[in-house]
Amino acid sequence: EIRSVRKRAVFVYTKKDALSQQQTMNIISALRASIRNPEQVLVHYQPMYDVQTGRIVSAEALMRINDEHLGFLNPSQFIFLAEQTGLIVHLTQILLAKVCTLIRQNLAKNALEYISVNLSGEDFTSRQMGQTLLSIIQQENIPSRKIGFEITESVVLQSYDMVADVMLELSLKDIKFALDDFGTGYSNLQALMDLPYAYVKFDKSVIQGAMSNPTMLTLLSDMLHKLGKVLIAEGVETEQQLEMIKKIGIERVQGYYYSKPLEKEAFLELVG
Ligand code: C2E
Ligand code: MG
Ligand code: MG
Ligand code: MG
């Protein structure tokens, strides 16, 4: 398995991007180290708020790596390498286990609807993966409805049949799905209608763009509401954006205006 990871990593080195070969190797080493020592995988939590009540209804779990040599790494520095090497599969499982533990230990009686975990296309290695994720949740003995998964549209369209199967399987256990970063890529209306997404998250860029012309966001919101989706606006930073979202009827917000992603302790203080 390590060999196949190495082989794929070679492909990474030939890619022309901002990272030097050495930096790339260092980050991949840090990812391997954090899989051996899961305490180096940190989870930050960003609350999502109900626009009408101003209450926290859920939260998104966001990964960071704390490496002994490289220090603190943000997703923009390591997620694409974790995906290209296949290491993301292990990191996703570590993160999910941590989220489940937090729910069991600290949030068992909390009104929070769910905490969502991001899935990459590379997480969908086989149809088995649904069972793997479920077994992590069941090991922690929490109700599976307390977990959500966020998937971007490009992932869905890349491996439609497998994603559809896994989504259906997990939805039957009351696990929630959100379509992430909506409005940044191709939108496939059929996929939106056929797949059991409960939530659609508008990307930050869509929210920002709508400030000068809200027509597109208004039309999309009306359509998605007709399909029964609950809408979440990402990247809301200003009062004006919040007002626009309220007017359009988007139900939930996640953004710096309310809260940045928080370390576990600060998050628990906020929701506890
Ligand atoms: P995402 O899933 O769309 O997550 C939202 C990102 O937007 C987060 O960045 C969050 O901190 C940022 N954000 C939220 N509100 C605001 C705002 O008001 N203004 C601005 N400027 N940014 C805001 P983060 O944590 O750096 O994560 C970036 C991306 O990395 C995520 O985008 C997701 O695609 C990926 N990612 C993060 N954690 C994981 C993970 O555990 N697994 C996988 N596969 N991907 C992850
Ligand atoms: Mg997300
Ligand atoms: Mg997003
Ligand atoms: Mg994103």
From TrEMBL:
Question: Which residues are in the EAL domain?
Answer: 24-272
Record's keyword annotation contains Transmembrane helix: yes
UniProt signal peptide: none
Superkingdom of the source species: Bacteria
User: Does the keyword field hold Transmembrane?
Assistant: yes
GO terms for MF: cyclic-guanylate-specific phosphodiesterase activity
Sorted UniProt keywords: Membrane, Transmembrane, Transmembrane helix
Its recorded name reads Diguanylate cyclase/phosphodiesterase
Taxonomic classification: Bacteria, Pseudomonadati, Spirochaetota, Spirochaetia, Spirochaetales
The range of the complete sequence contained here reads: 363 to 634 of 634
